[in-house]
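Pasting as-is:
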Amino acid sequence: MPFASHRGQRIHYTVEGSGPLIVLQHGLLLDAASWKQCGVVDALADRFQVVCVDSLGHGASDKPADPELYDQEQRAGDIVAVIDDLGGERAHVVGHSMGGWVAVGVARFFPSRLASLSIGGWDFLTGLPRGNAGPLTYAAFITFARRTVPELAEWVTSDLEGGVRACFNALGQVDGARDATSAPCSSTAPRSAAASARSSDAARPASLRAACRA
């Protein structure tokens, strides 16, 4: 399994296909394999080199509990480390849900490494949704996930929960998102901050759709 190393952490990724580099970043509780399961990888691999990254705290990547390691700039740097590991200069970056937040970080801190940016299932200006009692909390999120999609949350054991909580809490960082997503890309490819995942959402298993919307 290929790994990139960044700030002392191992970031796992998968590669399929050939062509321009496109990096897919999953949402909270999911992993790199979810893009394959949804059919996205197979739909792109005949035209792109498709790279799916296990976000820090997820999949086969390292799972530290230190909240400082989940800062947006550092998480965006994980994506750049994968691009570097593959010898790439720029990549089309697609992020869904939490992955959209990470992708915005690439636009914010490493804009020269972007060929284009696509975000789905994430409000990059306001961040976490609000409920009747205020902003969504980690406790409410994980309780909902365990009740409605237990197969996605069962891996979050007590020894790993610190990293997942840190992932969630970091999502409140939305400063600079508007400027980052409106700046021109470094290539001629268009930048899209629209909810581009909507068209493929119907093809996702119900459990994945529910978790992504949580």
